[in-house]
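Final report, Chapter 2: Outcomes

The project's central promise was a pipeline that accepts a single protein chain and returns its three-dimensional structure in a standardized token representation, suitable for archiving and comparison. That pipeline is now operational. To close this chapter, we reproduce one record exactly as it appears in the project archive, with the input sequence first and the structure output second.
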Amino acid sequence: MTIINRLRSYMTTFQWCEVLAVIGFTAYFAVTDHEHTWWYIALSSVSAICGIFCVVLCAAGKKAQYYWGFANIAAYLVIAWTARYYGEVMLNALYYLPTQFIGLYFWTKHYNRGSNTVRTKKMSLPLIAVSLVVIGVCIWGYRMVLVWLGGQATWLDSASTAFALVANALMVLRYREQWVLWIVVDVITIALWALAGDPIQITMWSVYLLNACYGLYMWSKLNKRENTTNE
């Protein structure tokens, strides 16, 4: 099998289009951005490119998404701190980074070697109800912390953090419903970076949104296949 065929078999054509779109827009905005410093543009670009590989591989059920996630988190931490989105900073430093290791462990433990994808699960109605209550409490409580820290756009920052906390936990535990929450996170975060005036991050999160919709579709198929296999 040639290298090109291997690359094509690893992700779908749609997913490669997502990756190429982010790389193209990132390069364009990096060259035309005259408002931010060179190091900010460089880190924002690294965050965008590594981030799209991470979420696209996650949608495909590939555990390699965690390796790209490490680089994405490191770069995103710096630019979020610069924009004074402290909720995003704490979310990535104190939660996303540690759960990268936990998620990699669980995904490796429940990996289907035959299909080279993770085994997925479906949430029960009681678990969905509990998740929504947790999200509501976190939004209200965390906003007060962000106001005390002097953060910007505290309602949006708090909401994106609360939804992402639960979504990431569901991702680690391999629940397909994570993608519904990621859709909400992406919409909110697009608004945050629109307020900050960062076109690279707006592009990245817009493609994340598209990928989250595709991820919900893909994981529904994976879950259906798992249930059919187990019958």
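Archive annotation: Residues 3-223 form one domain.
This record, like all others produced under the grant, will remain available to the consortium after the project formally closes.
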